[in-house]
Amino acid sequence: MKKLGLFLIVMTILASGCGKKQQDPRIKVQEGVASDTFGSNIVTKPVIHAFSALVGDRIEVTQAVTRRNNAGITELQVEFRNKSFNTERFQYKVEWVDADGFVIDSKTSVWLPASVPGKSNGTIIAAAPSAKAVDFRMNTRNQE
To answer: Is the model's pLDDT at 101 over the cut of 90?
Structure first.
């Protein structure tokens, strides 16, 4: 029985820390919204998959891309994947930053709702409030 308990503790530690991918540092995914990335070790994968099915994975940001449109406005596209089996609902806020690193005050920098069905992809698209914006910061939180 002690060996089984120790095995479960080790598997939980491995499941929560193995294979973490570096996310875009401009996007902060709050705990409870973010996905835990599980290891892909051939020995631990079946146990980790079963554990994942019980607790459910969450949202993982897969890509963040910016571009300047013809009007000189920066546009943002954030792609993410819901790794859980359930619909995940959360809120996000995009803040735009000028060349000096200062946040550009905007009425569009508010918490907005988002949701994505289980095992599905989602996309968030935003446009800067002015041509002064050169970068962004994005935060998420659980839906209130």
So the answer is: yes
